[in-house]
Design goal:
Elements (H helix, E strand, L loop, with lengths): L1 H19 L3 H4 L11 H12 L7 E2 L5 H5 L6 H9 L8 H4 L5 H7 L3 E2 L15
Length: 128
């Protein structure tokens, strides 16, 4: 009776480990090895892509038409609509006021800001 219980425990444990991939290479030696994505590395890559050091966000309340046209996905007509709708309390107002589409906004939201007149820009402490 004890040997049956031990056998069930061993089988259950090995099934759990096989399901998690711990013994996948041993169980299938001819199977191609596929790298699993590293969630921490992916998150770091996304953060680096969004926050590019040295690039100042474009202020939608004061940027020129030429500066706005440099933003990816914005045309000259889009830039003119941004300028015509000023001032904006928030950069999200570009979408809520139907100035640009949601997809355009998603593409540029990390590159823009809506600074208010008379409000000083907060100083950053360099990552501490």
């Amino acid at each position: 009776m004890k040997s049956n219980i031990v056998m069930i425990v061993v089988i259950s444990a090995s099934q759990l480990l096989l399901g998690s991939g711990a013994f996948a290479a041993a169980a299938q030696p001819d199977a191609p090895k596929v790298a699993k994505p590293n969630a921490a590395a992916s998150a770091t890559a996304v953060a680096k892509k969004k926050s590019q050091p040295g690039i100042k966000p474009v202020d939608i309340n004061s940027a020129s038409k030429a500066e706005l046209k440099k933003l990816p996905g914005l045309s000259a007509a889009d830039a003119e609509r941004v300028i015509a709708g000023r001032p904006y309390l928030s950069k999200a107002n570009l979408v809520t006021h139907n100035v640009i589409s949601e997809s355009q906004y998603q593409g540029i939201k990390s590159m823009i800001m809506a600074r208010q007149k008379g409000v000083p820009v907060p100083k950053t402490t360099g990552g501490k």
